Amino acid sequence: MKPELTLHGQTLQLNRYPIRQHETLQAWDAADEYLINQVEDMKQQQTLTLDAERPVLIMNDSFGALACWFARQGQTVSVGDSYIARTASQHNLAANALPDIAFADCLAPVPPQTQLVLLKLPKNNRLLVWQLTQLCAALPEDCVVIAAAKARDIHTSTLKLFEKHLGPTRTSLAVKKARLIFCQPDKHLAAALPEAQRWAVPEYKLTLTNHANVFSGESLDIGARLLLEHIPQDPALKHIIDLGCGNGVIGLQAARLNPQAKVTCVDESYMAVASCRENADLNLTNPAQLEAKVDNCLESMANSDADLVLCNPPFHQQNTITDHIAWQMFCDAKQSLKQHGRLIVIGNRHLGYDGKLKRLFAKVQKIAQNPKFVVYQAEK
Ligand code: SAM
Fold first, then answer.
1. How far is the CA of 199 from the centre of ligand 1 (A)?
2. With bands split at pLDDT 50, 70 and 90, how would you rate the model's confidence at 316?
3. What pTM was estimated for this model as a whole?
4. CA of 312 to the centre of ligand 1 (A)
5. E strands along 64-201, which residues?
Protein backbone atom coordinates (compact mmCIF):
# COMPACT_ATOMS: atom_id res chain seq x y z
CA MET A 1 0.00 0.00 0.00
CA LYS A 2 1.38 3.40 -1.00
CA PRO A 3 1.20 5.80 1.95
CA GLU A 4 0.34 8.77 -0.29
CA LEU A 5 -2.56 11.17 0.05
CA THR A 6 -3.14 13.24 -3.10
CA LEU A 7 -5.69 16.05 -3.02
CA HIS A 8 -5.95 19.33 -4.98
CA GLY A 9 -2.72 18.55 -6.84
CA GLN A 10 -0.71 18.14 -3.67
CA THR A 11 0.71 14.82 -2.43
CA LEU A 12 1.64 13.95 1.15
CA GLN A 13 3.57 10.89 2.32
CA LEU A 14 1.80 9.81 5.49
CA ASN A 15 2.78 6.97 7.78
CA ARG A 16 1.38 5.69 11.00
CA TYR A 17 3.66 5.56 14.02
CA PRO A 18 5.50 3.42 14.76
CA ILE A 19 6.17 2.49 11.13
CA ARG A 20 5.63 -1.25 10.71
CA GLN A 21 6.74 -3.49 7.86
CA HIS A 22 3.82 -4.59 5.70
CA GLU A 23 1.48 -2.00 7.26
CA THR A 24 -2.05 -2.53 5.98
CA LEU A 25 -3.68 0.45 7.67
CA GLN A 26 -3.66 4.00 6.28
CA ALA A 27 -2.51 6.99 8.30
CA TRP A 28 -5.59 9.02 7.30
CA ASP A 29 -9.27 8.37 6.71
CA ALA A 30 -12.21 9.66 4.67
CA ALA A 31 -13.08 12.16 7.42
CA ASP A 32 -9.62 13.79 7.04
CA GLU A 33 -10.12 14.01 3.28
CA TYR A 34 -13.60 15.48 3.70
CA LEU A 35 -12.31 18.15 6.12
CA ILE A 36 -9.46 19.11 3.79
CA ASN A 37 -11.78 19.26 0.74
CA GLN A 38 -14.33 21.30 2.67
CA VAL A 39 -11.78 23.93 3.74
CA GLU A 40 -10.23 24.11 0.28
CA ASP A 41 -13.70 24.51 -1.32
CA MET A 42 -14.67 27.22 1.16
CA LYS A 43 -11.41 29.07 0.43
CA GLN A 44 -12.02 28.82 -3.30
CA GLN A 45 -15.60 30.04 -2.97
CA GLN A 46 -14.36 32.78 -0.61
CA THR A 47 -16.71 31.73 2.17
CA LEU A 48 -13.57 31.28 4.27
CA THR A 49 -10.55 33.59 4.22
CA LEU A 50 -7.71 32.56 6.46
CA ASP A 51 -5.64 35.17 8.27
CA ALA A 52 -1.95 34.17 8.62
CA GLU A 53 -1.85 35.96 12.00
CA ARG A 54 -4.62 33.90 13.62
CA PRO A 55 -4.37 30.25 14.72
CA VAL A 56 -5.91 27.29 12.95
CA LEU A 57 -6.63 24.68 15.61
CA ILE A 58 -6.55 20.98 14.74
CA MET A 59 -8.00 18.67 17.37
CA ASN A 60 -7.45 14.90 17.68
CA ASP A 61 -5.54 14.47 14.43
CA SER A 62 -4.90 10.71 14.06
CA PHE A 63 -1.41 10.54 12.55
CA GLY A 64 -0.82 14.06 11.26
CA ALA A 65 -2.71 14.22 7.92
CA LEU A 66 -4.38 17.47 9.00
CA ALA A 67 -1.22 18.83 10.62
CA CYS A 68 0.66 18.28 7.36
CA TRP A 69 -2.07 19.73 5.15
CA PHE A 70 -2.43 22.92 7.21
CA ALA A 71 1.23 23.31 8.29
CA ARG A 72 1.85 26.09 5.78
CA GLN A 73 -1.25 27.98 6.87
CA GLY A 74 0.60 30.24 9.29
CA GLN A 75 -0.11 29.56 12.93
CA THR A 76 -1.24 25.95 13.14
CA VAL A 77 -1.71 24.32 16.55
CA SER A 78 -2.45 20.60 16.93
CA VAL A 79 -4.15 19.57 20.16
CA GLY A 80 -4.64 15.98 21.21
CA ASP A 81 -4.25 13.46 23.99
CA SER A 82 -2.05 10.96 22.18
CA TYR A 83 1.74 10.89 22.28
CA ILE A 84 1.65 8.48 19.33
CA ALA A 85 -0.48 10.86 17.26
CA ARG A 86 1.86 13.74 18.11
CA THR A 87 4.97 11.72 17.27
CA ALA A 88 3.40 10.50 14.00
CA SER A 89 2.54 14.11 13.09
CA GLN A 90 6.09 15.27 13.81
CA HIS A 91 7.58 12.45 11.71
CA ASN A 92 5.17 13.13 8.84
CA LEU A 93 5.87 16.88 8.92
CA ALA A 94 9.60 16.16 8.70
CA ALA A 95 9.16 13.51 5.98
CA ASN A 96 7.26 16.01 3.83
CA ALA A 97 9.74 18.84 4.53
CA LEU A 98 6.97 20.92 6.06
CA PRO A 99 7.42 23.61 8.71
CA ASP A 100 7.03 22.67 12.37
CA ILE A 101 3.71 23.48 13.96
CA ALA A 102 2.82 23.94 17.63
CA PHE A 103 1.52 20.97 19.67
CA ALA A 104 -0.45 21.08 22.90
CA ASP A 105 -2.21 18.56 25.11
CA CYS A 106 -5.91 18.74 25.90
CA LEU A 107 -5.42 20.31 29.34
CA ALA A 108 -3.71 23.36 27.78
CA PRO A 109 -5.81 26.47 27.13
CA VAL A 110 -7.23 27.09 23.63
CA PRO A 111 -5.06 29.64 21.78
CA PRO A 112 -6.61 33.13 21.71
CA GLN A 113 -8.11 34.49 18.46
CA THR A 114 -8.47 31.04 16.86
CA GLN A 115 -10.09 31.47 13.42
CA LEU A 116 -10.74 27.85 12.37
CA VAL A 117 -11.18 24.63 14.37
CA LEU A 118 -10.95 21.26 12.63
CA LEU A 119 -11.98 18.61 15.10
CA LYS A 120 -11.82 14.86 14.56
CA LEU A 121 -14.47 13.39 16.80
CA PRO A 122 -12.79 11.65 19.75
CA LYS A 123 -13.97 8.16 20.66
CA ASN A 124 -14.69 9.19 24.21
CA ASN A 125 -17.66 11.53 24.84
CA ARG A 126 -16.16 12.81 28.09
CA LEU A 127 -13.21 14.12 26.07
CA LEU A 128 -15.61 15.59 23.49
CA VAL A 129 -17.55 17.47 26.19
CA TRP A 130 -14.28 18.70 27.70
CA GLN A 131 -13.07 19.97 24.33
CA LEU A 132 -16.39 21.61 23.37
CA THR A 133 -16.55 23.34 26.76
CA GLN A 134 -12.99 24.60 26.33
CA LEU A 135 -13.80 25.87 22.83
CA CYS A 136 -17.04 27.58 23.87
CA ALA A 137 -15.31 29.61 26.56
CA ALA A 138 -12.37 30.61 24.37
CA LEU A 139 -13.43 30.95 20.72
CA PRO A 140 -14.29 34.26 19.17
CA GLU A 141 -17.79 34.16 17.64
CA ASP A 142 -16.45 34.49 14.08
CA CYS A 143 -14.50 31.24 14.43
CA VAL A 144 -15.48 28.49 11.99
CA VAL A 145 -15.79 25.07 13.63
CA ILE A 146 -15.95 21.91 11.51
CA ALA A 147 -15.88 18.46 13.04
CA ALA A 148 -15.59 15.18 11.14
CA ALA A 149 -15.97 11.47 11.70
CA LYS A 150 -17.20 8.26 10.16
CA ALA A 151 -20.94 8.75 9.58
CA ARG A 152 -21.67 5.74 11.79
CA ASP A 153 -19.95 7.43 14.75
CA ILE A 154 -22.10 10.58 14.53
CA HIS A 155 -25.28 9.95 16.52
CA THR A 156 -28.16 12.26 17.39
CA SER A 157 -26.70 12.26 20.91
CA THR A 158 -23.35 13.48 19.49
CA LEU A 159 -25.05 16.43 17.79
CA LYS A 160 -26.89 17.22 21.02
CA LEU A 161 -23.53 17.51 22.78
CA PHE A 162 -22.41 20.09 20.19
CA GLU A 163 -25.72 21.99 20.58
CA LYS A 164 -25.48 21.93 24.36
CA HIS A 165 -21.80 22.74 24.84
CA LEU A 166 -20.81 24.86 21.82
CA GLY A 167 -23.65 26.22 19.71
CA PRO A 168 -26.11 25.72 16.81
CA THR A 169 -25.14 22.64 14.84
CA ARG A 170 -25.85 21.13 11.43
CA THR A 171 -24.39 18.20 9.52
CA SER A 172 -23.32 17.54 5.94
CA LEU A 173 -24.23 14.72 3.60
CA ALA A 174 -22.09 11.61 3.92
CA VAL A 175 -19.13 11.29 1.52
CA LYS A 176 -17.22 7.99 1.47
CA LYS A 177 -19.09 7.12 4.68
CA ALA A 178 -17.78 10.24 6.49
CA ARG A 179 -19.75 13.26 7.63
CA LEU A 180 -18.99 16.79 8.77
CA ILE A 181 -20.52 18.71 11.65
CA PHE A 182 -20.71 22.52 11.39
CA CYS A 183 -21.09 24.39 14.65
CA GLN A 184 -21.43 28.11 15.33
CA PRO A 185 -19.86 29.01 18.72
CA ASP A 186 -22.35 30.71 21.06
CA LYS A 187 -20.77 32.47 24.05
CA HIS A 188 -24.05 32.26 25.98
CA LEU A 189 -23.43 28.54 26.39
CA ALA A 190 -20.02 29.05 28.04
CA ALA A 191 -19.73 27.03 31.25
CA ALA A 192 -17.08 25.91 33.72
CA LEU A 193 -14.93 23.00 32.57
CA PRO A 194 -16.13 19.64 33.90
CA GLU A 195 -14.29 18.50 37.05
CA ALA A 196 -12.01 15.47 36.68
CA GLN A 197 -13.84 12.36 37.94
CA ARG A 198 -12.67 11.43 41.41
CA TRP A 199 -13.65 8.20 43.15
CA ALA A 200 -12.35 5.91 45.87
CA VAL A 201 -11.19 2.31 45.88
CA PRO A 202 -11.87 1.72 49.59
CA GLU A 203 -10.31 -1.78 49.77
CA TYR A 204 -6.97 -0.23 48.82
CA LYS A 205 -7.55 3.15 50.50
CA LEU A 206 -6.96 4.91 47.18
CA THR A 207 -8.66 8.02 45.80
CA LEU A 208 -8.31 8.28 42.05
CA THR A 209 -8.58 11.39 39.88
CA ASN A 210 -9.37 10.77 36.21
CA HIS A 211 -9.09 13.43 33.53
CA ALA A 212 -11.59 13.18 30.69
CA ASN A 213 -9.79 10.72 28.39
CA VAL A 214 -8.47 8.30 30.99
CA PHE A 215 -9.21 4.59 30.49
CA SER A 216 -11.99 3.35 32.78
CA GLY A 217 -12.24 6.87 34.18
CA GLU A 218 -15.59 6.31 35.88
CA SER A 219 -14.83 3.16 37.88
CA LEU A 220 -12.05 0.65 38.52
CA ASP A 221 -11.46 -1.66 35.54
CA ILE A 222 -12.32 -5.28 36.39
CA GLY A 223 -9.02 -6.45 34.94
CA ALA A 224 -7.13 -3.94 37.08
CA ARG A 225 -9.03 -5.23 40.12
CA LEU A 226 -7.67 -8.75 39.61
CA LEU A 227 -4.15 -7.52 38.81
CA LEU A 228 -4.13 -5.44 42.04
CA GLU A 229 -4.42 -8.68 44.04
CA HIS A 230 -1.27 -10.10 42.46
CA ILE A 231 1.26 -7.28 42.76
CA PRO A 232 4.34 -8.70 44.51
CA GLN A 233 5.65 -7.25 47.77
CA ASP A 234 9.38 -7.92 47.82
CA PRO A 235 12.19 -5.85 49.39
CA ALA A 236 14.50 -6.95 46.54
CA LEU A 237 12.49 -4.94 43.99
CA LYS A 238 14.35 -1.72 43.19
CA HIS A 239 12.63 -0.55 40.00
CA ILE A 240 9.02 -1.28 39.01
CA ILE A 241 7.35 -0.15 35.78
CA ASP A 242 3.58 0.21 35.32
CA LEU A 243 3.23 -0.01 31.53
CA GLY A 244 0.00 1.56 30.18
CA CYS A 245 -0.66 3.12 33.58
CA GLY A 246 -3.96 4.96 32.95
CA ASN A 247 -4.82 6.70 36.23
CA GLY A 248 -1.85 4.89 37.84
CA VAL A 249 -3.85 2.54 40.07
CA ILE A 250 -1.47 -0.40 39.55
CA GLY A 251 1.71 1.66 39.96
CA LEU A 252 0.36 3.36 43.09
CA GLN A 253 -0.39 0.06 44.79
CA ALA A 254 3.01 -1.30 43.71
CA ALA A 255 4.65 1.81 45.23
CA ARG A 256 2.76 1.36 48.50
CA LEU A 257 3.64 -2.33 48.78
CA ASN A 258 7.27 -1.65 47.91
CA PRO A 259 8.31 1.69 49.45
CA GLN A 260 12.00 0.89 48.73
CA ALA A 261 11.36 0.76 44.95
CA LYS A 262 11.38 3.48 42.31
CA VAL A 263 8.15 3.24 40.28
CA THR A 264 7.90 4.48 36.68
CA CYS A 265 4.38 4.81 35.24
CA VAL A 266 4.12 5.12 31.46
CA ASP A 267 1.20 5.87 29.16
CA GLU A 268 0.73 7.32 25.70
CA SER A 269 -2.16 9.52 26.91
CA TYR A 270 -1.20 12.93 28.30
CA MET A 271 -4.37 12.98 30.39
CA ALA A 272 -3.51 9.56 31.86
CA VAL A 273 -0.03 10.74 32.80
CA ALA A 274 -1.42 13.96 34.35
CA SER A 275 -3.98 11.93 36.33
CA CYS A 276 -1.33 9.45 37.48
CA ARG A 277 0.93 12.29 38.66
CA GLU A 278 -1.96 13.88 40.60
CA ASN A 279 -2.87 10.51 42.08
CA ALA A 280 0.68 9.90 43.27
CA ASP A 281 0.71 13.31 44.94
CA LEU A 282 -2.65 12.55 46.55
CA ASN A 283 -2.08 8.97 47.69
CA LEU A 284 1.61 8.34 48.35
CA THR A 285 3.46 9.36 51.50
CA ASN A 286 6.52 9.83 49.31
CA PRO A 287 5.17 11.07 45.94
CA ALA A 288 8.74 11.40 44.60
CA GLN A 289 8.89 7.59 44.65
CA LEU A 290 6.79 7.59 41.46
CA GLU A 291 7.58 9.13 38.09
CA ALA A 292 4.81 9.42 35.46
CA LYS A 293 5.80 9.89 31.81
CA VAL A 294 4.45 9.69 28.27
CA ASP A 295 6.00 7.20 25.89
CA ASN A 296 5.04 4.76 23.17
CA CYS A 297 5.25 1.53 25.17
CA LEU A 298 8.81 1.66 26.64
CA GLU A 299 10.52 3.09 23.56
CA SER A 300 12.66 5.46 25.62
CA MET A 301 13.48 2.90 28.34
CA ALA A 302 15.24 0.07 26.49
CA ASN A 303 18.15 -1.41 28.48
CA SER A 304 16.62 -0.14 31.66
CA ASP A 305 17.23 -1.95 34.93
CA ALA A 306 13.66 -2.87 35.84
CA ASP A 307 13.02 -5.77 38.21
CA LEU A 308 9.31 -5.90 37.51
CA VAL A 309 6.94 -4.67 34.78
CA LEU A 310 3.21 -4.68 35.52
CA CYS A 311 0.89 -4.40 32.55
CA ASN A 312 -2.83 -4.33 31.75
CA PRO A 313 -2.48 -3.87 27.97
CA PRO A 314 -4.93 -2.09 25.66
CA PHE A 315 -6.44 -3.93 22.75
CA HIS A 316 -7.34 -1.03 20.51
CA GLN A 317 -5.52 1.99 19.07
CA GLN A 318 -7.81 4.92 18.36
CA ASN A 319 -10.69 3.11 16.59
CA THR A 320 -8.80 0.04 15.45
CA ILE A 321 -8.92 -3.23 17.40
CA THR A 322 -5.43 -4.64 17.37
CA ASP A 323 -3.08 -6.75 19.46
CA HIS A 324 0.09 -5.25 18.08
CA ILE A 325 0.33 -2.85 21.03
CA ALA A 326 0.25 -5.73 23.53
CA TRP A 327 2.98 -7.45 21.49
CA GLN A 328 5.05 -4.24 21.42
CA MET A 329 4.54 -3.86 25.18
CA PHE A 330 5.80 -7.40 25.82
CA CYS A 331 8.85 -6.89 23.54
CA ASP A 332 9.66 -3.54 25.18
CA ALA A 333 9.14 -4.98 28.69
CA LYS A 334 11.71 -7.65 27.90
CA GLN A 335 14.18 -4.97 26.77
CA SER A 336 13.61 -2.92 29.93
CA LEU A 337 13.93 -5.80 32.38
CA LYS A 338 17.19 -6.94 33.94
CA GLN A 339 18.05 -10.66 33.75
CA HIS A 340 15.52 -12.69 35.82
CA GLY A 341 13.26 -9.65 35.93
CA ARG A 342 9.53 -10.40 35.73
CA LEU A 343 6.65 -9.19 33.60
CA ILE A 344 3.20 -9.64 35.13
CA VAL A 345 0.37 -9.24 32.61
CA ILE A 346 -3.39 -9.44 32.81
CA GLY A 347 -5.53 -10.19 29.78
CA ASN A 348 -8.92 -11.39 28.68
CA ARG A 349 -8.89 -15.19 28.35
CA HIS A 350 -9.64 -15.07 24.63
CA LEU A 351 -6.60 -12.89 23.86
CA GLY A 352 -4.18 -15.82 24.36
CA TYR A 353 -1.30 -13.70 25.68
CA ASP A 354 0.52 -16.82 26.90
CA GLY A 355 1.40 -17.78 23.29
CA LYS A 356 2.99 -14.37 22.72
CA LEU A 357 4.81 -14.38 26.05
CA LYS A 358 6.27 -17.84 25.43
CA ARG A 359 7.85 -16.59 22.20
CA LEU A 360 9.76 -13.98 24.23
CA PHE A 361 10.37 -15.32 27.72
CA ALA A 362 11.99 -18.49 29.05
CA LYS A 363 9.52 -19.11 31.88
CA VAL A 364 5.83 -18.24 31.62
CA GLN A 365 3.28 -19.29 34.22
CA LYS A 366 -0.35 -18.58 34.97
CA ILE A 367 -0.52 -17.09 38.46
CA ALA A 368 -4.24 -16.31 38.73
CA GLN A 369 -7.48 -16.49 36.80
CA ASN A 370 -11.18 -15.88 37.03
CA PRO A 371 -13.89 -16.67 34.46
CA LYS A 372 -12.93 -13.63 32.36
CA PHE A 373 -9.24 -12.88 32.94
CA VAL A 374 -5.89 -14.61 33.31
CA VAL A 375 -2.77 -13.21 35.02
CA TYR A 376 0.55 -14.45 33.63
CA GLN A 377 4.05 -14.04 34.98
CA ALA A 378 6.96 -14.20 32.56
CA GLU A 379 10.61 -14.26 33.63
CA LYS A 380 13.50 -12.95 31.54
N1 SAM B 1 -3.24 0.40 34.03
C2 SAM B 1 -4.55 0.98 33.93
C3 SAM B 1 -5.57 0.08 34.58
O4 SAM B 1 -5.23 -1.09 34.81
O5 SAM B 1 -6.69 0.53 34.86
C6 SAM B 1 -4.95 1.24 32.46
C7 SAM B 1 -4.95 -0.01 31.60
S8 SAM B 1 -5.68 0.25 30.00
C9 SAM B 1 -6.27 -1.37 29.64
C10 SAM B 1 -4.32 0.37 28.90
C11 SAM B 1 -3.58 1.70 28.91
O12 SAM B 1 -2.53 1.62 27.94
C13 SAM B 1 -4.42 2.92 28.57
O14 SAM B 1 -4.31 3.87 29.60
C15 SAM B 1 -3.81 3.43 27.26
O16 SAM B 1 -3.81 4.85 27.16
C17 SAM B 1 -2.39 2.90 27.36
N18 SAM B 1 -1.70 2.74 26.06
C19 SAM B 1 -2.27 2.43 24.86
N20 SAM B 1 -1.33 2.37 23.91
C21 SAM B 1 -0.15 2.65 24.51
C22 SAM B 1 1.19 2.76 24.04
N23 SAM B 1 1.50 2.53 22.78
N24 SAM B 1 2.15 3.09 24.93
C25 SAM B 1 1.85 3.33 26.23
N26 SAM B 1 0.59 3.24 26.73
C27 SAM B 1 -0.39 2.91 25.88
1. 19
2. low
3. 0.97
4. 7
5. 76-79, 102-104, 116-120, 144-150, 169-171, 178-183, 197-201
